[in-house]
Structure formats: C-alpha cells, structure tokens
Amino acid sequence: MKIYLAGPDVFLPDAVEIGRRKAAICARHGLTGAYPLDNAVDLTAPDASLAIFKGNEAMMDAADAIIANLTPFRGPSADAGTVYELGYMAGRGKLCFAYSNDPAVYADRVARYHAIAKAEAGHLIDGDGLTVEDFGLPDNLMMIHTLDLHGARLVTPRQRPADIWHDLASFEACVALAADRAAVTSS
After folding, report:
1. Which residues of the chain have pLDDT under 70?
2. What's the chain's average pLDDT?
3. Treating both helix axes as pointing N-terminal to C-terminal, what angle do 169-186 and 15-28 enclose, rounded to 10 degrees?
4. Which residues, 6+ apart, have CB-to-CB distance to 14 below 8 Å?
5. What is the pTM of this model?
6. Around Cβ 127, how many Cβ atoms within 10 Å?
7. What distance in Å separates the CA atoms of residue 75 and residue 173, rounded to the nearest whole number?
C-alpha cells in the first residue's frame, strides 16, 4: 500500500529528515510512504508553487491512502494545505488516516488564541461574535467525520508530547492501522 504523507512537517527546518523517518516507519510496516518533499521542484522557478501543487496532486493520485498530520499549525486548527489534501483523498474514495499530537478539544485550543465567551443562547463565541465549534472534537467536524467515514478515527496521544513536531508515536499508530487495513484487503 502506498501512503501519501501529508502535513505541515514540510515547513520544519529538518523537514527532509522527518520525511525520511516517516518513510522508514512505513517501510517497517510493509508500506511505501510518499512524502511531498520527494518531488524535485526548482523553488526559484516562476511557477514553483504550481509545480509543488501538481507534484503533490500526482503523488496523491498514485497513493492508496493518506496519513495527515493534523497537529494544529500556526493557530488552533490543522494546516490548511493538509486539510485540502485530506479532502482530496476522501473525495477520490481513498483511505484516510490522520493524527494530531495535540489531544485538546478544538474549543479549548481556540481559547488559547482568542477570548471566547458564552452567547446568550448558550453557545461559545469569539471576540467577533462568531460561533466557536464546540462538539467536544479535536478539530473541525468535517475533518473528524471524514476520518470516521473514510478510514479510521483521529489518532491522538493521551498527553501532548514535549516536542509535537518530532514525536512520531501517533504517526506510527496510523501506519499500523493502515498496514492492518492493507493486510485485510489483500487477503
């Protein structure tokens, strides 16, 4: 089974090494990990962003499944590009797995960045008066239920690891789920 490895990991200073570690974990479980930085793109080219997009889309098309890192990125929620990739794969009927190294519920994470309050009607709102999703889920309901219906429940640790960007225990749990699924479908 070929797995597209999505996530904001590509922005880390040691992004290539993280990709190698993730691919090695996949290989130990009998899977092939395809990491976005495996694509060779000339970042100085005028169309570099489109080349990245097309390369990643081609990798997703060639993959059987996705493992998305939904650890909150630059705010209370997952990286927007990763969320797109998760939806892309679900829309193509491919298996969807994901993890987040922040096990807190979404409303609590929003409260880390914004003042929230209870509206007169009883729901949570932010400082702009906008509703804060509060279903006790770790992120937006569209992502969480995509996983429930197209693969497996979001994997989270019991406690937030000290290094949310380099701890790969929850990632490896997703790989194990994917390997189990691959074993079932091949028998």
Report:
1. 187
2. 95
3. 40
4. none
5. 0.94
6. 9
7. 25
